[in-house]
Design a protein that fits this description.
The structure is a homodimer.
Chain A (H helix, E strand, L loop, with lengths): L4 H8 L3 H9 L6 H14 L5 H8 L4 E6 L7 H13 L4 E6 L4 H12 L4 E5 L5 H7 L5 E4 L8 E4 L1 H14 L4 E5 L6 H17 L2 E5 L6 H6 L1 H7 L3 E4 L2 H13 L9 E6 L12 E4 L2 H15 L7 E5 L2 E3 L26 E5 L1
Parallel strand pairs in A: 1-2, 1-3, 3-4, 4-5, 5-11, 6-7, 6-8, 8-9, 9-10
Antiparallel strand pairs in A: 10-12, 11-13
The structure holds a DNA duplex.
Chain lengths: 348, 348
DNA sequence: AGTTCTGCTGCAAACGTTTGTAGTCGCATG
DNA sequence: CATGCGACTACAAACGTTTGCAGCAGAACT
């Protein structure tokens, strides 16, 4: 029913190959002929069938984007940035949601494999070996985890966690809890590593709670555990959990930051909306989305590339963190490294 | 490079057509042969090329889902429900975001047209005539707007607005502001119509402010206007705007609900997170996502169908609405119609 | 005048599938 | 022994494109 290239050829009295070239290689066809063809196409409402084109060129001009949870406010800015960046390069982005399930994750990559030119795998919960296997099916760029042998873009969340810990210690906190994230998450491991180290060098004690689902509910659910641990400050895996925790503490009549300080990670839109406003580590999500698209488009088919882009993070001090029980000559109110959202690039 | 059906045929010593049938019509091929074929396919890592299949069957087994703004918390539940529902029917959902821009909206439908079996168009900002034109390119199901001649699923937001107004009037409010939504929105027109009617029948005054972008910022920006209007209650186009407004009022030292009552619409996750918790109209977004998928899959190619599914809404009373200046024997605390998330179906 | 070049267009194969039709085989039936 | 049938499998055309190659005219060289 829809018009094909053959209909256009017939209508304009030329061969199909000429019609094809009129669209995809204008310089190879006489300007006058081309005008004829385009006019005929217009009246027929012809639109090239991308599937057929993909079949022969091997390029679909589509990018897959897989995220753990589209409802997590961390992802939308990344998605939007990737979409508009890709659109500017004549690519379309197909978003899919895995519900934090590694099985669905794998299934989706496989399903997308043949209909996109590459997949952006964000915050994967699979194992590295699984990811490497999948990378044989379709070009992959991993976001929020460095996978040896694959292009990846990560955020320097270790640095962010360190800054957050130093901030808390500087405020006089000596017993701090880490509200851990989900099991498969590289980011979670990084945070834990950096926080542990920072606590040790500062002579503070770190209580690790987790792993937990990275949700608001799970943040709330850990409130009891936090209180039992007897800490004066908490660093959470992400803003969502921090918000959930603050909420549950509030319900119990525990004042933030007067009795307990809470610091989040991600600086989502949420963090400016809570009472008190959330001290958090800002991660450059939009920049990550753009960088991932660039890497995918740039590397094209040579899948075994090893570029790693690392984006800087910064500490954003708001109102959910305050003085701890151990008075100290604290640091100044602001403690932010220069930040332009762009990357240090390295190779491994 | 990736294994094709021909490789599998060669490896298992049968014709390609047999391989094809081994996958898509198992009962037509000898069980033993089939086992051979599947084994060969397995070792070669063969996966059928969906683009090639689509070329001949005309079915891609993909669904496009277009939303105005993926960062608006109204959409993720709808998206997730549509995705998992579709996955259960062996379909994949491709999500795209228009940034509230009608131009991008049209472009995306056209781009998706040839690579999906149909498109779910959520909360369109285009005109009805534009939508009808596009429906000739690809089967369309419209969500949040009834378009004559096209299948659509809408929420009975007029009923929700009426309930909200009655709630406010019952609390003693006589001067109420309506914080309007975006220009192209059918939902916005419905709310306005219903609220106006409800105000008139109750003898209350309604001040309409807008149109506005459906964002938190724009809710905050209207705080001045709300105060100038001298109203004691506000009904907002959505939760996002309600939250933004409450925030801005709070900054000005205006107490909610003591001085001004605020009611939202959508019952997003946000509404339970604000202080005070938001009174709002719950819209069954997940059910809408599922219903839309069903309609698309069911109607298949006969595009000119006229089914309309209407989903009920309910009023959820929380803490952001309180007594107004005019004491009345108010209604009970709860005022909710029976609600099971399912639809009344009708035809027009 | 012959040759080469340039600019354009047509031809036909190819991409990886599906599917209608025809063929083969063994076996039971008449 | 011919016939028919059932179960299976091979053949080949088709889907809507792209693209290397060849062809052809005319212009520009030698």
């Amino acid at each position: 029913m829809p018009a094909t290239i053959r209909d256009v050829a017939k209508a304009s009295g030329v061969h199909v190959s000429t019609v094809s070239r009129a669209f995809s290689a204008p310089q190879l066809v006489n300007a006058e002929t081309r005008a004829h063809v385009l006019a005929a196409a217009e009246v027929l409402g012809y639109r090239p069938n991308r599937a057929a084109r993909a079949l022969i060129t091997g390029r679909t001009h589509n990018i897959g984007l897989i995220v753990a949870d589209i409802a997590n406010p961390f992802f939308p800015p990344l998605i939007k940035a990737a979409e508009s960046h890709a659109r500017g390069r004549d690519y379309h982005v197909f978003v899919a949601d895995t519900n934090e399930d590694p099985g669905v994750e794998e299934e989706l990559v496989l399903a997308l494999a043949k209909q996109v030119d590459g997949v952006l795998l964000c915050s994967p919960r699979m194992s590295n070996t699984q990811i490497e296997q999948l990378s044989r099916e379709v070009p992959l760029v991993v976001v929020n985890r460095p996978v040896p042998g694959l292009p990846a873009v990560v955020m320097d969340v270790a640095q962010g966690a360190r800054l957050a810990m130093e901030h808390l210690v500087g405020l006089g906190h000596r017993e701090i809890a880490l509200l851990g994230g989900p099991r498969g998450s590289w980011t979670n491991r990084e945070i834990r590593r950096a926080a542990t180290l920072a606590a040790r060098t500062a002579g503070a004690e770190l209580v690790v709670l987790g792993p937990n689902a990275p949700t608001e509910e799970s943040g709330s659910a850990q409130a009891e555990a936090v209180l039992r641990a007897g800490v004066s400050a908490v660093l959470a895996y992400n803003d969502l959990m921090a918000v959930g925790l603050i909420d549950a503490l509030d319900h119990r009549g525990v004042k933030v930051p007067d009795q307990i300080s809470v610091v989040g990670i991600d600086d989502t839109a949420l963090s400016r909306r809570t009472r008190p406003m959330l001290t958090t580590v800002a991660t450059p999500t939009a920049a990550a989305g753009r960088a991932a698209v660039d890497m995918l488009l740039q590397h094209g088919d040579d899948r075994r590339t090893t570029a790693l882009v690392t984006l800087q993070t910064e500490l954003v001090i708001r109102d959910s963190s305050g003085p701890g029980p151990h008075r100290t000559a604290g640091p100044g109110r602001r403690q932010q490294p220069p930040f332009d959202g762009v990357a240090s690039e390295s190779r491994e």
